[in-house]
């Protein structure tokens, strides 16, 4: 039996490499059915293992050579620390300390850290406890900031009360005001229920002005990484983190967007030019060009570059 081979012209749109690849596949297909009576070749190989579950993903760091700096060349100021927090369940509120000065001071000396700023010094009785514990015994090593009484937002005359508390805090020794991201993301009209209170709510105008009058800088944490405001899906760069901690997501519900929070904070800075604002964590904005524009526009704005990594506490405690 003779086989007739028909010569076909290769289409111009297929290049030589594509044609060779096609020819190879054709040859492979022919071999599959070769053998006795056109019997099909051996069975297909077994399916590969199931994809790795995200919960089982434990990457190992591929380290490059690094230079460890054990001690700062120049005396340093650690502007962003949380040496204490306020126990709001106590009546009156009490300060809770994360360490003892006798434990912290030797570390500071080894690292050449001259001063540590404890931003979360609290308010009222808790503030006085923090001042007595850290700042007053070592005024050249520890600096304490106060915080707003957010849990009294429902009270009549809150604006005036909060401004007066800033003045009192300054008088007893507090050096600045710390505002957590509670404002804008957690504080509501009934403290924990009702609509969210915006960062630029005018009820806080007297507080911002009082801080400026007392020469107290305002360290303000607004928003969170932008990915926390997006859908938690395969395109989210923090999918692994948000899958492990879904309560860190601010996507949907009644939460403002990352940009809305930033813009509200910027309106506060613009409204109070005599008050100095330090936007923490580079303003929680990954858009450095935008951050640069803020600094050009608002002479009373400063940027702090501290990073932070959560290891488990709820998002509300991020500071």
Description:
This protein starts with 15 loop residues before the first helix and ends in a 16-residue tail after the last strand. It is built from 9 helices and 9 strands. The protein is an alpha/beta fold and 319 residues long. Mean pLDDT is 85; it is low at 1-42 and 311-317. α4 (158-172) packs parallel to α6 (205-213). Helices cover 31% and strands 12% of the residues. It is globular. It has a 7-stranded parallel β-sheet with strand order 1-4-5-6-7-8-9. It has helices at 16-32, 101-111, 124-135, 158-172, 182-185, 205-213, 239-244, 258-271, 288-297; strands at residues 76-81, 84-87, 94-97, 113-118, 142-146, 176-179, 218-220, 277-279, 301-303. The longest helix is centred in the N-terminal third of the chain and has 17 residues, at 16-32. Among the domains are: 70-147, no CATH class; 178-319, no CATH class.
């Amino acid at each position: 039996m003779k086989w007739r081979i028909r010569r076909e012209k290769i289409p111009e749109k297929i290049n030589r490499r594509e044609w060779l690849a096609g020819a190879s596949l054709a040859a492979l297909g022919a071999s599959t059915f070769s053998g006795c009576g056109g019997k099909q070749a051996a069975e297909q190989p077994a399916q590969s293992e199931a994809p790795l579950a995200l919960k089982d993903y434990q990457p190992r760091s591929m380290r490059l050579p690094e230079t460890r700096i054990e001690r700062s060349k120049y005396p340093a100021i650690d502007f962003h620390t949380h040496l204490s927090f306020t126990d709001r369940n106590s009546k009156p509120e009490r300060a809770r300390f994360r360490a003892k000065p006798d434990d912290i001071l030797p570390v500071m000396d080894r690292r050449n850290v001259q001063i540590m700023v404890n931003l979360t010094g609290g308010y009222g009785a808790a503030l006085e406890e923090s001042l007595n514990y850290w700042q007053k015994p070592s005024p050249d090593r520890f600096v304490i900031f106060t915080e707003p009484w957010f849990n009294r937002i429902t009270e009549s005359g809150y604006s005036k009360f909060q401004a007066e508390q800033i003045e009192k805090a300054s008088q007893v020794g507090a050096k600045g005001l710390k505002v957590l991201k509670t404002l804008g993301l957690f504080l509501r009209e009934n403290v924990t229920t009702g609509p969210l209170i915006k960062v630029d709510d005018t009820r806080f105008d007297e507080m911002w002005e009082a801080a400026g009058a007392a020469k107290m800088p305002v360290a303000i944490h607004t928003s969170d990484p932008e990915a926390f405001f997006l859908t938690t899906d395969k395109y989210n760069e923090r999918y692994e983190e948000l899958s492990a901690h879904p309560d860190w997501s601010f996507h949907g519900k009644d939460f403002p967007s990352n940009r809305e929070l930033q813009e509200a904070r910027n309106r506060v800075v613009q409204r109070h030019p005599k008050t100095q604002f330090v936007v923490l964590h580079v303003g929680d904005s990954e858009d450095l060009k935008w951050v640069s524009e803020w600094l050009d526009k608002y002479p009373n704005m400063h940027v702090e570059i501290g990073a932070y990594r959560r290891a488990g506490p709820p998002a509300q405690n991020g500071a």
